[in-house]
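Task: encode each sequence below as C-alpha cells.

Item 1
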Amino acid sequence: MHNAHVWHLLGVDVPNLLPESVFGSRFPRPAGRLIWSSLLFVVGLVVAYAWMKRPKKSDEKVTWAQATLGAFFVWVMLTLGFGVIPSEWIVFGNAYLKFDSSTYLVRVDQFAGGLPPFDITRDKFVDLVATLINVVSLGLVVYFFAAWQKRKVAEPAGEETGDETPKGSPLARLRARRAGGTSAYGRPVTTSE
C-alpha cells in the first residue's frame, strides 16, 4: 500500500517536452535529461561569457549577496559540467544506445600491421566520451576563472564637480565630506565647532 506521507524524489514524473522522434530518430525522448542539461549548461556559459565581458567597477566592493549568487551560479555550472552531463551520457549510452561490453567497437583478432590482437568494447567508447566531457569542462573552468581574474576595470566616474570621492573607511569619508562642507547628497553641511 502506498503511504501518502512519503514522497520519493526519484519517483516524481517530470514531463518530457521533447518530441517522440526527430528525422526518424527515436532518441530525443530517452536523451531528454542529457539534452536539457546540455542546453542549460550552454546557456549558462553564454551568460557567464557575457557577464565576464562587462568591465568590473573599481570603486564598488562585492556585496555578500552578489558573492553568494555568484558562488551558487558557479556551483550549478560545475555540477552540470562534471556531474549531470557525463552521468546522463553514460546512462543514455549504456541503456538506450546499448553500448555494453558484449559488443565491440574495434576488434583485431590477428596481428594486423604489427599490432597485437586487442578488443575495444562499445562501453569503453561511452566512458571515453564521458572523460572527454570532463576534460572539456575542466578546460572551461580554467579559462573562465582566468578570464574572470583578468577582466577589465571600468574607469571610476567622477562627480559633476570633478572632485574625487575620498577613499578609506566610511568614517573617514564622512569626515572628508564634512571638512569640504557638503553632505553625501551634495547639500551644504553646517557644524557647530
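Item 2
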Amino acid sequence: MQVQFLGCGDAFGSGGRFNTCFMVSGEECRFLIDCGASSMIAMRRYQVDPNSIGTVFLTHLHGDHFGGLPFMILDAQLMSKRSEPLTIVGPESTEKRLHEAMEVLFPGSSGIAWRFELNIEEFRGEKPWRRDPFTVSPYRVKHDCGAPPYALRIECEGRTITYTGDTEWVEALVPAAHEADLFIAEAYFSDKKVKFHLDLETLVGRLGEIRPKRLVLTHMSPEMLEQLSGIRHETAEDGLTLEI
C-alpha cells in the first residue's frame, strides 16, 4: 500500500505547503484522508487523476481539511467528466456544511444534477464505518470546528493507518493509533502547549503506549519547520510517498 502526502501544511500555507490531503493507494482502492482547500492544485501538480479517487474520509470540517471538496466535485462534473461514484465520509453535519460551502463559493452549484453518483455519509459518533474494503473507526478528539472532530483509524487491505487530525492531546489517541502500520500525527509546535493543537513533546511522551510501527509528523507551524533538521522523527513534506 502506498501513501502520498499531496499536502501536509497548516491552514496558512506555512513553508509554502499545501493544505492537508493524503492519498492512499492499494490494490482495491484509492482514497483521500482530508481534502483541504488547495487539494485540486496539489493533485494537478503531482499528476493525480481525481477520477481515480473513490472515497474521501474527513477528520473535521475546517477549510484546510475539507475546503477542497467543492472544487473536486465541480471538477468531476465539468472538467474531469467523472462517471464513477464518489463517496465522502465525514463527521456529523458534513452534508449540510458541504452544501453551504458550495453555495458560498459557487452559488447554485449544490443543486446541480450530478453526472456521477455522489454519496455523502456521516460518522455516527464513534461507531465504526464499514464498507468493503474499509473499516474506519472515528475517535473523538478536541478541536473547535463547529462539528465533532475525529482522529481516524483506517483499516484496509491488511494495513492500518491512523491520522490524528487537528487536536490537543486526548487519551483517545492511544487506542486510535495503537500499533498502527502508519501513524500520521499533527506536531504543530515542539513543546508549546496550546488549545486544540498537538505538540511534539507531548506526543513523544506517549509513544511508548501507542507503539506505532511508523510515525510521520505533519501540520507543522513555522516554528517547527525552522527546526526540521533537528527533529529525529520522520516528517512529511508535500509529494512524499511511502510504502507501508
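Check on item 2: DSSP finds seven helices and 14 strands in the chain. The chain has one domain: 2-243.
End of task.
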